[in-house]
Amino acid sequence: MPSSTPLIALKGVSFQHADESVTANKLDFELYSGQSVAISGINGSGKSTLLSLIMGLRSVSSGEVHLFGHSCRTEADFSRFRTRIGMVFQDPDDQLFCPTVIEDVCFGPLNQGLTRTDAIVRARKILKQLNVSHLENKITYQLSGGQKRVVALASVLAMKPEILLLDEPTNDLDPENTRRLIDILKELSLPMILICHDANICAQLVDKEYQLTLGTMVALP
Ligand SMILES: Nc1ncnc2c1ncn2[C@@H]1O[C@H](COP(=O)(O)OP(=O)(O)OP(=O)(O)O)[C@@H](O)[C@H]1O
Ligand SMILES: [Mg+2]
């Protein structure tokens, strides 16, 4: 295991939803620079919830979340660091909220302080890379499921994140788009947490696999 400070560390994290379903139980996890990991687990085991805890979108019941070596407790703590982490939500409708595709993909770069012209240049570049330039002026909510997923990914990559958290990113994608996504992720070579049920995809993208079981992370051989 690398000796440097982890990019993401969960220390004894516990969390349960209001209905008392436990998704994390004194869970420990670390993601280091240069590392990409996959998390699998049965439906409802808490994978998506875990990503939301890392991003500070939900608050841990106990334990600590560290991002880039900093302990994060408050919204102010998380907001300092979450802009450096690109999260693709399991449901693209949670990610996309602008009227058109180009506005959605420009939103992050504009928030990062880019001029409108520079944001459009960056957005068009990533849409081209993902082979969806033709969707630029489409109404976002009228896109197909697979198109929405590619646009959601584009909106995250346009922010040039340092870490990727991808929640079942290949759901709805046809074989060609799946292949393209895998190639792009390989080329980006960013530290990554990939939630994915497809062993073949995991094998191509990550160096370590975990299973989320009864609220704890079990490393797979
Ligand atoms: N907002 C919520 N309020 C109450 N319970 C919730 C909420 N979101 C999720 N849960 C519950 O928490 C548990 C974990 O849900 P989560 O979405 O994290 O699972 P998952 O492992 O991502 O599942 P899937 O493989 O189906 O995506 C489930 O039992 C779910 O019903
Ligand atoms: Mg999920």
From TrEMBL:
One of its GO terms (cellular component) is ATP-binding cassette (ABC) transporter complex. Keywords: ATP-binding, Nucleotide-binding, Transport. Residues 8-220 form the ABC transporter domain. GO terms for molecular function: ATP binding; ATP hydrolysis activity; ATPase-coupled transmembrane transporter activity. The keyword Ribonucleoprotein does not apply. SUPFAM superfamilies: P-loop containing nucleoside triphosphate hydrolases. Coiled coil: none annotated. InterPro entries: AAA+_ATPase, ABC_transporter-like_ATP-bd, ABC_transporter-like_CS, ABC_transpr_CbiO/EcfA_su, ECF_ABC_transporter_ATP-bd, P-loop_NTPase. It comes from the Bacteria. Transmembrane segments: none annotated. Belongs to the ABC transporter superfamily. PANTHER family: ENERGY-COUPLING FACTOR TRANSPORTER ATP-BINDING PROTEIN ECFA1, HEAVY METAL TRANSPORTER. This is ABC transporter ATP-binding protein.
